[in-house]
Fold:
Amino acid sequence: MVALARARLHVSPPGRLPLRPGHVAGARAMATWLPGMATYGLVVGVAAGKADVPALAGWLTGPLVYSGGAQVAAVGLFDAGAAGVVVVATVLAINARLLVYSAASGARWRNTPRWWRALACYLLVDPSFAVGADGYARADAAGGDARAMAEAHDHYLGAAVVLCFTWLLASGIGVLTADALPAGLELAFVVPLFLLGETQRRVTDHVALRAVLVTVAVAVVGRALPLHLGVLTAIAAGLTVAALSLPPTPTTEDRT
Amino acid sequence: MTVWLTLLVAGAASYSFRLVPAVLVDRVGALARVERISAYAVPVTFAAVAADAVAARATVSTAGALDAVAPLAAAGVALVAARRTGSSLAAIAAGMPVLWVLAWGAGR
Structure:
């Protein structure tokens, strides 16, 4: 209980958020993501700037929706004159993967203050989840005590805040310079390439390999489904394969 | 629905997707097996998003077979680069030129 209370105090200073080593470490860990994400943010901003919607509305998809794929889809649908219900449904279908991230992170974020969880949830997106998961894995390896977990929380927040700031800045620049970037560069493609690299790095056992292969197959076939439901279906299929492939009790072959 | 109202609804709903499962897990408690499976959430989700994007680029190609193959070749080269270097930035550095060259060769 004392350790828990200390962890709470460590995470929740009253009224302000001082910069701690964990925040800096998280920001540094996010640095490898930033070139790709800044480019992607720029491309999303350009798409918003060129669409037939108010520039401010295009940029506001960043702070409000905060998910590149969903933002691009929303801007494209606005541009095509789609009904609001269709835009919302599409955004939610693309963002459905956030349900998985949130459920996985929620187990880690027990015993954190409400304001911290509210902020952490807002910042939850693919890169922040990945960098955060690395931090929590290190905390587990270090024994998973209250101090290690508090540092992992700082690691997540440091990474997520830097990403959010970079994303909003890059997309803002994209909106303002929409006509200057040649479409032929296909810069949006840096994101799937980067995600492939991150996936490759994280396939460290047979369970992950099996799950990823099934995921890719379902994602490709699932493109025929409406509202981008193929992605969600593929994630569900991959996690199901992982669940069925795991041994009943943890072994040394399991991921930590 | 106006653009502004649609944005607000989409934003609020997206935030609820981020918040609600975390709150539920906190209140109800996660099963150990679910926690173990969640370790695979990152590679599985990234693979789904990447595969969807690569397939989308391949299927919307309007400049012939070479242009359709370009994203697949770029993805393959990116995977090899990432595997050899352990760096995801190397995946971009190796994959994008392949995409550009093949798309340019297809006359895109």
Remarks:
- The radius of gyration of chain A is 19 Å.
- DSSP finds 13 helices and no strands in chain A.
